[in-house]
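EI: anyone free to look at a 275-residue chain?
SC: sure, send it
EI:
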Amino acid sequence: MSVTSRRRFLAASAVACGSAAIARSAAARDPLPLTLGIQLYSLRGFPVDQALDHAKALGLTQVEFYPGMFPITDDATAIAAMQKKLAKRGLVISAHGVNRFTNDAAANRKLFSFAKAAGIKTLAADPDPDSFASLDELVKEFDIRVAIHNHGPTHRYNKALDVLSAVEKHDERIGACADLGHFIRSGERPTEVIRLLKGRLYGIHLKDFAEMQDKTKGVILGKGHLDIPAVMEALVAVGFPADGALSIEYEENPQDPIADLQACVAVARAALGQT
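SC: here you go
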């Protein structure tokens, strides 16, 4: 058996074992009203067309772009071309990021103009503290949300309280894109993060790590410290928005992630009762 075949076999076994118990517990209730998508950084080893094909093959309808796969532009032709690629595959954009905001109001406006033209409702972001005055004006003008993305222990937005304290005095459209994997690395429990950020939660990155520490390894959803059924229930309980970006993000093995992503999707769908 080749290395690739063995990886796919093991991932398939993980799906069968890991999602079966979740599916049994979810079978007694109605499917949860959440739409699953993918952060395309998970498919960064592929050209954009192939990445979108993989997203569709995974049975997903929402994609969250990262700037390397859909660069910020004011070129209407380039934006229309991407929208055509998406429509051809029955996909929609849930969010775009992670984007940097500074005190350069003109540069910030360019990003919002791009988002409006592309039909993007949420911009995942790492905003500088002196950018918020500009962002308060732009989210009102464009009616587009900014969602602060945390990046683990060495990042300025490390803990959920760091995010909350940054946004609480600003327009309610400025909130959080909670990367649950990075919160695990920061020693925080994902369900508590979700509850704490209630009302300001516009994006979720479903990511799991083997250990609750800075240096650790990414794993298939549910194999580490991410309690997938509890996370999904918590999202419903806090009223996660219907147009929020609920994105699987799996960063391991970028050249051959498909079997692992299939396992992640199966576990997430089982928790949602959508099998």
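EI: The radius of gyration is 18 Å.
SC: 👍
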